[in-house]
## 1
Amino acid sequence: MDLSYSDEQIMLRDSAERFVDANCGADNLRKMRASEEGFSRDYWKQMAELGWLALPFTEDQGGLDGTAVDTNVLMEAFGRGLLLEPYLTTVVMGGGALKAAGGADDLIGQIIEGSLLLAVAYAEPQARFDLFDVATTARKDGNGWVIDGHKAVVLHGDSADKIIVSARTSGDRRDRSGISLFIIDRGASGLERRAYPTVDGSRAAELFLNSVQVGPDALLGEEDQGLAILEKVSDNAITALCAEAVGAMKVLLDTTVEYTKTREQFGQPIAKFQVLRHRMADMMMEYEQAKSMALVAALKVDSEDPIERRKAVSGAKVQIGKSGRFVGQQAVQLHGGMGMTDELSVGHYFKRLTMIDILFGNVDHHLKQFSAAA
Ligand SMILES: Cc1cc2nc3c(=O)[nH]c(=O)nc-3n(C[C@H](O)[C@H](O)[C@H](O)COP(=O)(O)OP(=O)(O)OC[C@H]3O[C@@H](n4cnc5c(N)ncnc54)[C@H](O)[C@@H]3O)c2cc1C
């Protein structure tokens, strides 16, 4: 199998790397952390002009018909630059949900032109990593619905123009059936948002839905059939996150190798000590394994075979979680006390890797998913 990138993918990678090298990184993160929304609307506009927001959508929808591998090419560059803009939440998750539900091409058009930001509120405090554990309810009210509940850690939930919310339309809290998806405006009456910064310098919000009334057109896809869409969104998000993590690990590896060549101890650069070379060789191996698994996930995430898809996606998430932790810990350790400081970029990449491990299920969760599918 030829696993090399096509000419188009190389162009996409080069333009994304140029963009993040010029605009992103730890300095930008420190600046954006202090801003109101935590990211740059100007960068978002540029990302729209570069066509990146159109990547996964079909040509009929005004998109570029890109594959999961194409998305990974972008996400790897974003990981290298600690990009803060809501690509994952708006394009991969929100856009992915609209695409899977069908019939929302006008909203997809708005995503592509950069005028619509989306968030997906799938998690609840009691649910751990189970997408089907949904206590939020939606009950019929005339033609429309009334939604009540609490959604936790909604990524970019503070800046999103619309939020896709999972709610139970039938069954009990942990039933796999009976979950529906609704799209709610940010200004909906009864919707309360409590925003906060996350450990990696990004933003999230707790959402409280107090009898939020929506019309019949708020329902995305079929009533009671929302879980299949959520699972697809989750698998695509995991795949994209794996690629982002690979980009972050590469920075940690390169930075660490570079640093050990300059830091002198016992009269010579510490990179000369064999024991440290072994550590960096181990970091390299972890990075390579993570990169390969991220590619496998991208190649299989759209597979019709649910077992093949589960094994590829969960397998990649396990490897990324383990490798990210190893590479991050070694990078901090080899940088010594400096590795712990806010001034150095190392800690920021490690925090992002830590967050990626937790998102959509950590190592333990996906090891169980993998075992169940194997
Ligand atoms: C990359 C790096 C960054 C660090 N940054 C910090 C920091 O910011 N702040 C901080 O407090 N500490 C820092 N350290 C020091 C580290 O914390 C100490 O190495 C550790 O606290 C001491 O551990 P140790 O004595 O158990 O073992 P080791 O560090 O392995 O040393 C054991 C002893 O062996 C001898 N020894 C080992 N190698 C040689 C050699 N090549 N030539 C001569 N004698 C040798 C020395 O006498 C040494 O005391 C850093 C270390 C490294 C490798």
Note: The two ends are 23 Å apart (CA to CA).
## 2
Amino acid sequence: MTTIDADILIIGSGITAALMAARLAETTTRGITVVEAGRATTPFAERARARARFMAYGESPWKQDHLDDQNAFGTAWGFSPSMTVGGLAMHWGGVAPRYSPEDFTLRSLYGVGDDWPFTYDELDPFYQEAEERMGVSGEQGPVALDPRGKPYPLPPLPVNHNLKQLQGWATAAGIAAWSTPSAKNSVPRDGRAQCQRCDTCYPVCPSGAKYSPDFTWDALVAANKVTLLTETLIRRLVADPKTGAIVRATGNRTDAGGEKVSITATTVVLAAGFTWSPHLLLLSRDAAHPDGLANRSGMVGRYLAGHRNVNAYVTLPLELFPGINAQHSLVSKQFMRVPKSGRYLRHDLRLWESDVGREPRLRNDAGAVQFGDALLDDWRARAKGATARVRAYYDVLPDRDSRITLDSAHTNRFGDPMPSLAFRDAPESAALRPWQEEQVAALFRRMAKAGNGTVLKMENSVNDLGQEHPAGGCRMGNDPATSVVDKWGRAHDHENLWVAGAPTQVSASCCNGTLTFVANGLRTASAIARA
Ligand SMILES: Cc1cc2nc3c(=O)[nH]c(=O)nc-3n(C[C@H](O)[C@H](O)[C@H](O)COP(=O)(O)OP(=O)(O)OC[C@H]3O[C@@H](n4cnc5c(N)ncnc54)[C@H](O)[C@@H]3O)c2cc1C
Ligand code: SF4
């Protein structure tokens, strides 16, 4: 058995944990030990080679980024099995918008969902810090829609010829759209290159222009600021039955030996993401806590949140040149701020150039196989004109029964039941869904008309049972009867236990969530340093 005596123990090494550790290392002298179930994936120095192999053979550049037997079941769309140093953000696209101020006061403003225990303005400095730590390139949108205390740390990624054309189209449709904020270097920074527009953000950025958490871990480990213990799965937290304090975290190595590990710590931070944080609390039930730790309210695992989308491809009488940084897009927050009366619908809006309907093809309309110049001529003719992609994420209000439970039919190598996910919309959200999707579809049709274009195809979320940018399961609140952690992320039931980021969220807005998970985590780190 390996035994470790830690000061601050952080469980999980995802993006939230990385930036919290960076802040804690600057603001406390206490020792920080980080435990990660997986191992490190392809190091930065090898990414160009990994990309080359990926392109040549369709191989994954992120081999062995998971534990074969740690999986979720049920309606698990949105769940990713990646368990690795850096977590899911080793794979992310780097799209980093903020929520809108309305997200934090939905109940007060619109009479739906729940208010957060703090406001957008209180989160603003932590949003800024998250953007500065990872390096977000962004353009200030209209201030009323996109308020911020300070400018973006990096200038925006360029609105190139293609996006300028699409911006003109959006303007004609009455929509203000601007460069999407992204955690990608628009200028060289932190020893990493400027974005090379090579369009392999998924699955690998060879130049390091896109931020990923391994950069932070590498720097912290090299400076001896943290001890990072990889291939170690925490399987239980042990609480003192009288005081409720967490006295120990126990688990096993996930290497071939599977050796037992026991860690004592004065402060425990659960930063294991939206699935595994509630899962570990549920697994850690004991005689004094028969429903699991931090679960006096019965709220652990409940109120899983996320959003769905409506997506359309529109052909337009414009001249675009497909393939120039197709990963970069325009964004609008116009529909995230809506009138307080009327039926509830809020959504974001993104616009990309697309090659849909303009791809090269091996057979022509007559079905004849094409080679060489004939193939290229056919492609040139098809590539003329423009296809745009528009997508809106719309709010889904989380339900109390949108939840994670333990599924004893599926166990890992240690015999622990795996999580079962069941995403549910709150009934009022489910009732609005057909109308909401039709409203967004009608907007896309109006946009197509404003640009003298045609809707080529329209589709609603394919993830009918799950939701994107999943969060929740350990929601924040002032009332210990209806929430798991307080407004700083400290468990109501255990004085030295903190839950970080995604699981604590009250709702998941209608845009990509990771920047908010991290800002929320940095807010928790500020409270840990004060405690
Ligand atoms: C392909 C893809 C693209 C994406 N693109 C975007 C995007 O453009 N914008 C955006 O906002 N979001 C995006 N996301 C989502 C984003 O990656 C996640 O929201 C974010 O990474 C979550 O970070 P986290 O810190 O909450 O947790 P995680 O990344 O889930 O990290 C948790 C870590 O804890 C470890 N762990 C869990 N349990 C234990 C345990 N018991 N013991 C030890 N370790 C444990 C896990 O192995 C993992 O490394 C994308 C996701 C994917 C998969
Ligand atoms: S376009 Fe290329 S260089 Fe830029 S972030 Fe994506 S992968 Fe990295």
Note: DSSP finds ten helices and 19 strands in the chain.
